[in-house]
Amino acid sequence: MPFLSFSTARKIFAGLGGLYVATVVLLTIPYFQTHTLFLHAVKLPFFANFDVPELYGLAPNKTINLRIETADNESLGAWFVLSDSFYHSLPTIPSQPSDLLATALNARPTILFFHGNAATRALGARIQHYTGYSSRLAANVLVIDYRGFADSTGTPTQPGLARDARAAWNWLIKNGASADQILIMGHSLGTGVSSLLAAELSDEGISPRGLVLLSPFSSITKLLETYSIFGVVPLIKPLAMVPWVAKMVLSMLVHTFETDTLVPRIKGPVLIAHAGKPFLGFSLLDLISMAENDWEIPYSHSQALFDAFLDPLLPTAPQLPANAAAFTQEEWSLFMDRVAKRKDLREGIVTTVELRNFGTVHEFTESGRKVTFVHTRAGGHDYLGIQEGLHDIIGRNFGFFGH
Ligand SMILES: *[C@@H]1O[C@H](CO)[C@@H](O)[C@H](O)[C@H]1NC(C)=O
Ligand SMILES: *[C@@H]1O[C@H](CO)[C@@H](O)[C@H](O)[C@H]1NC(C)=O
């Protein structure tokens, strides 16, 4: 008697297939899409007391719990974390830290941090980010919970999150920060939000200190094309067998966060960081290198963004004609020439430095601004931003160390 009879196996597969179809259909409904993308209903840690940041590991009165009002009257919960160098310069624990805001904002640069989807600003992994930035970079940190998250009002949408980001920026300026003291930083979903803010500010001729994108996606559409549920069940790939179905499902996306199309609008220095080895699809190699992978967003998204920043400096990429077989010998060699020329030019523009055991840093400078791609070996998706090696590159690139 076999362990699993044929008809049982068939039923299981039919069941899984049905579940898959149901999942895809649910995701075309905006309500479910919103909840799946933002996961804002997952309010981890549960019943957090945002008034007492000390409960989550931050030093007494180093963090101010505050509310920020948006242009469309949502009220956002936020934390302002004092830089350690400022906090330690005080003779005692401050009894009214909110009175020190303006002084703190002028004493040290501030990281305006936009977290990823799900959970709240009190999540342990996020606290480790504020601790790293306020100590190793001696930066102040402002972190908001978007509308619909944590103790903030409202429901998340893409334009809504962009307004939240702008409200946080305006709050810093209103409290005495200057634009060049503010480094905009996003993680995961927050990279889409950060890029929207950076593009909007650039359009207005406002120059923040820079933009940092941790574990970004190039766009939600492109992410979904490669996304696998639990890193195993591909979401869109099976649909691609019927291209119009895949196209239709992707066209029903409500919140697209197309960072790649924002790239030409974003001025000023940019640092992109991503952990992990190349994502090769579901293979034995991936299993072996598991510990080094970003399992949620493959690093090819960061490469694509870096390339998008680099693209204007290179001649247009030669295109293969639809019918490559019709290419004459001459046309082929012309094509190959242009490919080689583009590659040479790229290598002349981009410097690549291998930091042994840590990762690789690709960098180019264009009309005075640096664009950097740090490809780390470790950190995964959620702990990339606490890598000391990454803090140091951020510190040097954005002038946090005073030289
Ligand atoms: C926000 O609230 C203010 C004052 O209560 C009101 O004047 C304004 O019209 C509101 N704006 C929006 C977009 O609801
Ligand atoms: C922390 O600040 C609060 C007011 O914001 C104050 O009542 C309290 O005494 C301060 N704690 C310490 C240890 O100074």
From TrEMBL:
What keyword terms does UniProt attach to this protein?
Hydrolase, Membrane, Transmembrane, Transmembrane helix
Q: Where is the AB hydrolase-1 domain?
A: 109-216
GO molecular function annotations of the record: monoacylglycerol lipase activity; phosphatidylcholine lysophospholipase activity
Q: Which organism is it from?
A: Mycena sanguinolenta
**Pfam families recorded:** Abhydrolase_1 (PF00561)
Query: Transmembrane ranges?
Result: 12-32
GO BP terms in the entry? monoacylglycerol catabolic process; phosphatidylserine catabolic process
Q: Which domain of life is it from?
A: Eukaryota
What name appears for this protein in its UniProt entry?
A: Abhydrolase domain-containing 12
One Gene Ontology term, aspect cellular component: endoplasmic reticulum membrane
Q: Give the classification, highest ranks.
A: Eukaryota, Fungi, Dikarya, Basidiomycota, Agaricomycotina
Instruction: Answer whether the UniProt record assigns the keyword Glycosyltransferase to this protein.
Output: no
InterPro entries for the chain: AB_hydrolase_1, AB_hydrolase_fold
